[in-house]
Design brief:
It comes from Bacillus solimangrovi. The protein is α+β, with helices and mostly antiparallel strands. Helices cover 60% and strands 11% of the residues. The chain has nine helices and four strands. The chain has a four-stranded antiparallel β-sheet with strand order 2-3-1-4. Strand 2 and strand 3 (116-123) form a beta hairpin. Helix 2 runs antiparallel to helix 7 (172-197) and helix 4 crosses helix 6 (126-148). The longest helix is centred in the last third of the chain and has 26 residues, at 172-197. It starts with 6 loop residues before the first helix and ends with a helix.
Length: 246
């Protein structure tokens, strides 16, 4: 005999164990809130842009020059994060971090089909992030002349310091929302698992489902009614005793 589960039974299971679901769901929410606001260090991001162009004085820039510059951009992206540049950035800013750590903080990306290169920096200190981005661009502009004997780099836009910067991570609201969804999923899974492992018989419907036989009669529980009657009889006896005593 096949067992079928109706939507009503599913909703009844969820309703019966709603407190377990909510309790399990609130645990990851609390953990996520504590981590997002009190444990994880906020990270700020800023960026500066450099322009790769051919400096030919009064000569016009040709399509061949632009194509050459675009081919050089990939090389420049590597040079910007090389020790030849970052060593001087660490020295000029008197940073305590190593070149390897500074390298991990910098992300160099060229705009698609353009000669613009963006130097993005992430740091716990927003003011320091601005300094690193601008200094990296300035050092690269200066050193590329010595490294490749070319002078085709100019700073297009400097990074600016915002008085009220917003961290890019963590994102507390997003983290809490994800934690809530995950917690609810786990809670629902636990609720159905407990229901599946519960083999106790609670109603005549359970008897029909397990034995496959119709229920002929049901014996109601008389405990509450008997207790109520005893309480009423006790009150009557007390009243009688008071009447006799008076």
């Amino acid at each position: 005999m096949e067992e079928t589960i109706s939507l009503k039974e599913l909703f009844d299971t969820l309703k019966k164990r709603i407190w377990i679901i909510l309790l399990i769901a609130i645990i990851p929410v609390i953990i996520s809130t504590v981590l997002s606001f009190y444990v994880i260090t906020p990270i700020y991001k800023t960026s500066t842009q450099i322009l790769v162009n051919q400096n030919n004085g009064d000569q016009q820039t040709t399509s061949g020059d632009i194509r050459t510059n675009l081919e050089l951009i990939n090389t420049y992206n590597v040079i910007i994060k090389s020790p030849a540049i970052l060593d001087k950035v660490v020295e000029e800013l008197d940073l305590t971090s190593s070149v390897g750590k500074l390298n991990s903080q910098i992300n160099v990306q060229s705009e698609k089909n353009s000669q613009v290169v963006s130097i993005a920096v992430e740091d716990p200190n927003p003011e320091m992030a601005v300094k690193i981005a601008n200094t990296t661009a300035e050092v690269f502009q200066r050193e590329i002349v010595k490294i490749m004997n070319v002078n085709n780099v100019s700073i297009l836009a400097y990074a600016d310091f915002d008085e009220n910067p917003s961290p890019i991570k963590p994102q507390p609201l997003l983290n809490i929302a994800i934690a809530l969804v995950v917690g609810l999923m786990i809670g629902v899974g636990v609720a159905f698992l407990l229901e599946y492992l519960d083999n106790s018989i609670k109603s005549e419907q359970d008897v029909e489902n397990i034995l496959g036989l119709p229920v002929l009669g049901v014996i109601t529980t008389m405990e509450k009614e008997e207790k109520l009657k005893r309480n009423q009889m006790h009150k009557v006896d007390v009243v009688r005793g008071e009447s006799v005593g008076s």
